[in-house]
Amino acid sequence: MSDILCMFYSRTGNTEETMKEIAAALEAELVEITDDVDRSGLRGFLRSGKEAMRRSTHPLEKFQTEKNLEDYRLVILGSPVWAGRCSSPIRALLKRRGLEMKRVAYVLTRASERHYEEIYDQMDQYTAQKHVLAVSLRPKSVGYAFWRDKFIQDVKRYLEQ
Ligand SMILES: Cc1cc2nc3c(=O)[nH]c(=O)nc-3n(C[C@H](O)[C@H](O)[C@H](O)COP(=O)(O)O)c2cc1C
Fold this sequence. Notes:
The protein is an alpha/beta fold. It has helices spanning about 15-25, 40-55, 90-95, 120-125, 145-160, and strands at about 5-10, 30, 75-80, 85, 105-110, 135. Strands 1, 2, 3, 4, 5 and 6 form a 6-stranded mixed β-sheet that branches. The longest helix has 17 residues, at about 145-160. Bound molecules: flavin mononucleotide.
């Protein structure tokens, strides 16, 4: 049973791929979350952007973790950037369960050059303590593997302390 839980939402697979790579390297438990909303196609894209801007959320589909959230040494949350904010399913998770997570780290995936580091602080509003580590990755970019691997090493070092 792992001490690290990786949870993610992914609309089109980027965040899923990244979180699978990170979870494998850390031998962490991996759990996908989703809400009860159809986010496919252009309509789904527009709806998702609007919800992110309004910070509105929907109920999450039921998910299961091996332990209670407060019993993990670290919960790593993976979210795509939506309209300069975190995705609304991850916001829904944070709103409902954020206070149960004792230590959190964030992984953002994005399409543009911008890093959107202000999103980390927005996510911290829902957690018991500020995040301990975070990374913003642009899938398929030149620096992607470097920054992903640095994050993995930083997590390992952090947990050795
Ligand atoms: C509604 C919506 C809004 C987005 N807004 C941004 C944005 O503001 N900045 C950015 O760099 N990428 C933005 N993107 C692109 C995604 O963050 C990026 O492609 C991400 O890796 C997708 O992850 P996924 O495949 O796990 O869903 C947006 C995507 C969607 C669907």
